[in-house]
Predict the 3D structure of the following.
Amino acid sequence: TDITMDRSTGTLYLHRLNGSTAVGAVVIAVDTNGNLVKVMTSQARNYATGIEFVDGKLVLGERDGLQKMYVMNLDGSLVSEAPNPYKYNYGPRCLAYDDNNTLFQTCTFFPTAGGSLTECYLITIDKNDLSKETGRLALNGPSGLINARAVEYDRADRNFWIGDFGGNIYKIAGFYYVAPPVTGIDEQKYTSANITVAPN
């Protein structure tokens, strides 16, 4: 359901459901060549979703059941748990981190099983208090709400990569986006101009 990386060791951690009916999950650690390092039982025991490497530990989320967030040591032991700040039906999804103080979580709301997507947000969570939402950004694409799952923080421009249920990938202007300055030309001097819009 999600993937994260310890960049200091090159170890990838994957969150994998044992099944889609609240039967637990595992965290699989592999190196960048795909060699298995270890498999641990996830502390997110219901519908495990997000995983993110933060300060030498793993932060885990679960979509259903108790809808909690867990902090787990790399040996699989529980450090702490907190209620997920987004407690809506089929709500919490994947996690990302800005390497500073903020976690980002994609969140969806389906009022009923099989119903239509009603809300989709990217929320911010302070890594020191996983129970509180500190910001919210609506996720909209050209066709309306993005049925978001994956999220990755782009360290180069502080915006986000979002993956949806249909397999599409979006680049989304984030919380820190600053629009480039508006510039103009004197029409009497120039008959044409090349314009570059960056970064989005």
